Amino acid sequence: MSSPTTRNKRRIREAIDFLKSSRRAVEIKVDGQENPFTSKIITVDHGDVLARPGMGGTLLIETLCPETGNDLIEAKKSVTVSFSLGKYDCEFTSLFVRRSKISPYYGHIITYPECIRILNRRRHNRYERGTSEAPLFLDARLNIRIGGDPGKEYDFKVFDVSEQGLGILVGADMQDFLQAVDIGYRIEELELLAAWMTIKVSGTVKHKSKIDEGKYSGHYLVGIQLDERLEHYV
Fold first, then answer.
1. How many CB atoms neighbour CB 172 within 10 A?
2. Hey, what domains does the chain have and what are their CATH numbers?
3. Distance separating alpha carbons of residues 26 and 84, to the nearest angstrom
4. Is the dihedral of CA 227, 199, 27, 155 positive or negative?
């Protein structure tokens, strides 16, 4: 069965503008690559300024993380952009146009979507720090070895939690951790701390992006897909 699709220009515009204004991370899957890269939408042309003749609008996205994606995206024409809106997972297909090297708009220009596919309705609630539905676990602790160093303990703030994963806030002063932990990195025995209990979870890093605005500006958001669901804790 094919996924529901919207071609409503107003709805597409609203979705793209929301992703840009909220600085929400998006996943970029380059044609032929199994693992996605992460990015954000920097600027949007809905069809007038950046477009080449006959092409329509364009999006300027940040350079990809991990960095290997920045060469791959130039070698392939088709990319898939995935994101979440409310309780829905969505995606659209774009074409790579060119790399942008003009300060401060470093990144990649891709074509504006003609439609957005609605993949599925998210089954699980997502609890976000600083909202009326804050997560049960507000802090996290991890002891890992980086390189040849002995085990080092890191303390984080939990940004959001769902049954299947969580996001942790990593300070810019933790550069050794940020450089070591990339997409696909295995996290073992991460402690999640609540006021009255502690549990240990393991999982895989699915995205990593810098927060440029708001209360947590300067932090990095690291998203972890868990091996086991937190259905008893959310």
1. 12
2. 5-121 (2.30.110.10), 127-226 (2.40.10.220)
3. 8
4. negative
User: Each residue of 133-178: pLDDT tens digit?
Assistant: 667 788 999 988 776 666 788 999 999 888 888 999 999 899 989 9
Token pair recorded at residue 183: 């997409």
Q: With contact defined as beta carbons under 8 Å apart, do 160 and 167 qualify? A: yes
**What's the CA gap between 123 and 67, in Å, rounded?**
32
Within 8 A by CB and 6+ apart from 116, the residues are 5, 6, 11, 12, 15, 90, 91, 92
Q: Any idea what the Cα angle at residue 123 is, between residues 170 and 86, rounded to 5°?
A: 60
pLDDT digits 0-9 by tens, 78-92: 999 998 876 678 899
CA pair distance 136, 197, nearest whole angstrom: 10
